Amino acid sequence: MSTDSSLADGAGHRPAPFRPDLLAGSTFILFGLAFAIGGSRYDVGSALRMGSGYVPLALGSLLVVLGLLIMVMAFRGGDPAIRDVVRPPVPWRRGGLLVAAILFFGFFVSGLGLGPTLFVTTFIAAMAGHGTSPLKAALTAAGITALCLVVFVALLQLRLPVLGEWLGG
Amino acid sequence: MDGILLGLETALQPSNILICLLGVTLGTAVGVLPGIGPTATVALLLPITFEFDAVASLIMLAGIYYGAQYGGSTTAILLNLPGESSSVVTALDGHQMARQGRAGPALATAALGSFFAGTVGTIVLAAFAPPLAELALQFGPADYFAIVVLGLIASVALASGSTVKALAMIVLGLLLGTIGQDQFTGVPRFTFGVRELYGGLDFVSLAVGLFGVAEIIRNLESRQSASIVTKKVEGLWLSKDDFRRIRNPVLRGTALGSVLGVLPGGGHVLASFTSYSVEKNLSKDPKKFGTGVIEGVAAPESANNAAAQTSFIPLLSLGLPAHPVMALLVGAFIIQGITPGPNVINDEPELVWGLIASMWVGNLLLVLLNLPLIGVWVKMLSVPYGVMFPAIIAFASIGCYSIGLNSWDVFAIAGAGVVGYFLIRWGCEAAPLLLAFVLGPLLEENLRRSMIISRGDPSVFVTRPISASLLLLAAVIIVVAVLPSVRRKREVVFQGEDD
């Protein structure tokens, strides 16, 4: 895409564009386009009688413009607020485990019930930690599950079944 | 005056004191955990409060908020890990005091300064919210549109970092707010046929994702190496000399905080930074600031807490949240079936005044209970991160799921967490996005309504005096914010934040 080619061009004769700005800018452009295009499929209407699509189309277009401005900033030395901050690399595996844990909860809580779902969720999440062995993660998960069941089911009496319908709960 | 009495009567009911105490304790317990600021704490604990009736749940929320702020200062002082930008300044001198073995006086100063500031802030709030609400009743849709725009623009100006990025975050927040059924036509927008999304994205999920999960991913970037400087905190009492030294900084901080707290979008951050630099400039020995002077803890903590109190003024009088925690409170109001706005103070006097009075009660409880309990909070600090963050994930998932038994609310946490992590990494602040998300429907509704009333003539926004002056103010703010000279000054004010 355009991002890649501009990166390649910039590397040779002038200072490379600031990557975080390019990425932020293109993210905003993508979101802006999605909402603007999506909005234009609904009834846009007129300024007098604005339809459902009017505001998303207008704001989406504005977001594209702002995204472009941020892209321009990338070629002008980058955002001074973060330019000189050295950040460690993105923790893809750990972050991925965290997301997987949350998604697991969302997918399975109604079927498996709170108890088993929580155990698996916290186990996956715990595995994202630095230097956490599977055994340690399992112990952590068991402890947190017990704590949550006491707090949410016994004390707060949330209407969440501990065992789901798949397990005969 | 009647209002305050009614409020005290409500807040001092034994069950409400208990609720407030529970909120304060829970808030402190979660807020003290490193890397979890007040916003994340309130978002995480919000679902618990839905179990109670409206008055009790809001009292508990306010308690959680104060507890979280207090817990945040504790972490800042003992660990040098400020949970939110407003306690960054406290960490500067507070942590140095702790390293010199004066953690006790630093914590006591924070608590006493906060209590005093909170008391003054409550009085300011009680004095100004009702007349402002009265005034707001005369606002038309165009004026409301203008005041929302002003609030959003002000949050850009007060955000640290790039103005364009903050603007983009606002627009993104407004767009995310359009997801769900259109309130005028009932057309479901951007729901992709998913029935669960008709009600819109859940704001609790968004807040938990942006302020909780994103922060956890950030913390997982590198091994956590923070260690507590002192396992035992002793000598909580201040000496006579300490009292003499903190008196004026507390007074000045309270005054600054009370005024700046009303500003939308981060007045409390500005208040703590400004009061710190004021004290530094007034000091005979400014070089000592940053080496552990007690004035450097007293002023920003008072300013922060006074601002926390007065930031309720726009919420209770106009229904406008001044910062992300207030935005969460708006959500809580709505879930309780109350539309925040100028009518609330007349329609639900018990609720509003009870909330105001219980803030004061909550501050008192903080001083009375949390200082003696400091040992317990220090123990919470020694919970290893590897155990803590899975627990946060569990709490966040259960909390968001339990509100509506809706799996999409859980998926939204993950989505907001990932998008938030990357955007924050790329220098975009999350607070304007959440604020815009909550204000988005209000903005769209009033825009469309005013255009219908004016028959499509956009000049309605500049011919009505209230909306014209508010929009002019917004325009001035945005021009000033992008002017280079002001930008440099802003960088000086916020320089501590990038560390």
Q: What's the pLDDT, averaged over the residues of chain A? A: 85
Determine the number of helices of chain B (DSSP H or I, runs of at least 4 residues).
23
What fraction of the residues of chain A are assigned to beta strands by DSSP?
under 5%
Give me the Rg of chain B, rounded. Answer: 22 Å
Classification by helices and strands of chain B: mainly alpha
Sheet with most strands: strand arrangement of chain B:
1-2
**Structural class determined from secondary elements of chain A:** mainly alpha
- Estimate the helix proportion of chain A, in percent: 55-70%
Got a strand count of chain B?
Answer: 2
The main β sheet of chain A shows up as: none
Radius of gyration of chain A over all CA atoms, rounded: 24 Å
Q: Would you write up a description of this structure?
A:
The complex is a heterodimer of chains A (169) and B (499). With 169 residues, chain A is an all-alpha fold. Chain A is 67% helix and 0% strand. In chain A, helix 2 packs antiparallel against helix 3, helix 4 runs antiparallel to helix 5 and helix 5 packs antiparallel against helix 6. The radius of gyration of chain A is 24 Å and the shape is flat. Chain A starts with a helix and ends in a 14-residue tail after the last helix. In chain A, 40% of the residues are buried. The N terminus of chain A is likely disordered. The longest helix of chain B has 34 residues. In chain B, helix 14 crosses helix 20. In chain B, strands 1-2 form a two-stranded antiparallel ribbon. The chains are: A mainly alpha (169), B mainly alpha (499). The interface between A and B is large, with 80 and 69 residues.
